[in-house]
Design a protein that fits this description.
This protein is of the alpha/beta class. The protein has a single domain (28-333), classed as D-Maltodextrin-Binding Protein, domain 2 (3-Layer(aba) Sandwich), CATH 3.40.190.170. Helices cover 47% and strands 17% of the residues. The chain is built from 14 helices and eleven strands. It has helices spanning 3-27, 44-59, 80-86, 119-126, 129-136, 179-187, 200-206, 216-221, 247-251, 255-290, 300-310, 312-316, 318-321, 323-333, and strands spanning 31-36, 64-69, 91-92, 143-153, 155-158, 172-175, 191-194, 211-214, 230-233, 238-246, 294-297. The chain has a six-stranded mixed sheet. The protein has a five-stranded mixed sheet with strand order 2-1-3-10-4, sandwiched between helices. Helix 6 links the parallel strand 6 (172-175) and strand 7. Helix 2 (44-59) packs antiparallel against helix 10. Bound molecules: (2S)-2-hydroxybutanedioic acid.
Length: 337
């Protein structure tokens, strides 16, 4: 064979082979991250999930595809944790109240009423040693904790004005599945009703429950204000999230992809936490403007009556949540019971 011809055939084979390799690489299916959550897109968590999708897909140059399923489309709260452990979804951001039923009761420290006065106090816990040690407890459940995302402070809604703890007596109040929240409602003389988030609107509409507690952004986006005549700005507790992934999936990712996803999560978290307060303030303003619910602001004396009724729930839950965890939070925030 003519030398030149031989070389060009050989070169042709090399080029064809490298095209095939490149073709295969680009045709390789992306790694899919199914991210399921129960709230609307236009909420702090909904926006955080969208931001993570954007950063993750950009930074991995399409090697990762994030599919976000909002509004309990895939799983209701109460079902999603098991779905993550089984690998049916890879990522979730359940509210911190959802970790007690998983068996990691220390997370219920975040449900204790009046535990945090503001976001800054809360962040000293989530950004500090307590936040890290809580994440370590998830590993044995096959879960890795990636970030804490804020929602905000809870208000109380009903069809009657709630100004004093006594006003809560006998009301059927929807709560998330949490022993601490059960005790909180009992301390007010109310009847706690555990129910999935997606079912609350209808339960309010049909009178299955009289009211609920949640953040303004959750209430507004679920239209609770359309079926509740009064909302009290009680700020009696906090709702936030832990963004978590299936450990087997996470550990099995190529190391460079994992690093890129960590950086995407870091920036999504920054954005989510920066806007959470504004989202809740805006939602409250939109409720006010709708004219559908009357908004009640508590006087200082009324607020301290709610505190007096609810702070004993800390002590009551000491053995469940863990005295060490509660005290570590007190120490971090400077809370005095
Ligand atoms: C709830 O009331 O169930 C909410 O915490 C849902 C959520 O994820 O914000």
């Amino acid at each position: 064979m003519n030398n030149w011809r031989g070389i060009s055939i050989a070169a042709g084979i090399v080029i064809a082979a490298s095209i095939a390799v490149a073709g295969n690489a680009s045709a390789q299916a992306p790694i899919v991250v199914k991210f399921s959550h129960v709230v609307a897109v236009d909420t702090p968590k909904g926006k955080g999930a969208e931001a993570f999708k954007k950063f993750a897909e950009q930074r991995t140059n399409g090697r990762v595809k994030v599919e976000v399923y909002p509004n309990s489309q895939l799983f209701k709260d109460g079902e999603e944790m098991e779905a993550l452990q089984l690998g049916s979804v890879q990522m979730l951001a359940p509210s911190l109240a959802k970790f007690g039923p998983l068996g990691v009761r220390e997370f219920e420290v975040f449900d204790l009423p009046f535990m945090f006065d503001n976001y800054a106090e809360l962040h000293t816990v989530t950004d500090g040693e307590v936040g890290k040690s809580l994440f370590r407890k998830l590993e044995s459940k096959g879960i890795v904790g990636l970030a804490y995302w804020d929602n905000g402070f809870k208000v109380m809604s009903a069809n009657k004005p709630l100004r004093t703890p006594e006003d809560m007596k006998g009301l059927k109040m929807r709560i998330q599945s949490s022993k601490v929240l059960t005790d909180e409602m009992r301390a007010l003389g109310a009847i706690p009703q555990v129910m999935a988030f997606s079912e609350v609107y209808q339960a309010m509409q049909t009178g299955v429950v009289d009211g609920s507690e949640n953040t303004p952004s959750n209430m507004f986006t679920q239209k609770h204000h359309e079926v509740q005549k009064y909302i009290t700005l009680s700020d009696h507790g906090y709702i936030g999230y832990a963004v978590i992934v299936n450990k087997k999936f996470w550990d099995g990712l190529p190391a460079d992809v994992r690093t890129m996803l960590e950086s995407a999560m870091k920036d999504a978290t920054k954005g989510a936490n920066e806007f959470a307060k504004k989202d809740n303030d805006d939602a409250m303003e939109a409720i006010r403007k709708s004219g559908k619910s009357e908004i009640i602001t508590l006087t200082a004396a009324q607020k301290s009556a709610w505190k007096k009724a609810l702070v004993p729930v800390h002590k009551e839950n000491e053995s469940r949540v863990g005295k060490d965890t509660i005290e570590a939070v007190y120490k971090t925030t400077g809370f005095k019971p």
